[in-house]
Amino acid sequence: MNRASPFQHFSSGGMSLLVHGAFVGLLLMSVSWRSLPHLPVEAELWSALPDPPAVLVPALPPGPPLEPLPAPEVAKPALAKPDIALERAEKRRIAKEAREQLEWQRQAEEKTRIEKENADRVAQAEKLRQVQLQGAQARREMEQELSRQAREELDAEETQLRGALQRQQAGSRRQARLVGEFQDRIRGKILGYLRLPHNLSGNPEVIFRVALLPNGEVVRVTLVRGSGQPAYDQEMERAILKASPLPLPNERDVAAVFRDDLILKFRPREDASGGG
Question: What is the pTM of this model?
Answer without folding.
Answer: 0.39
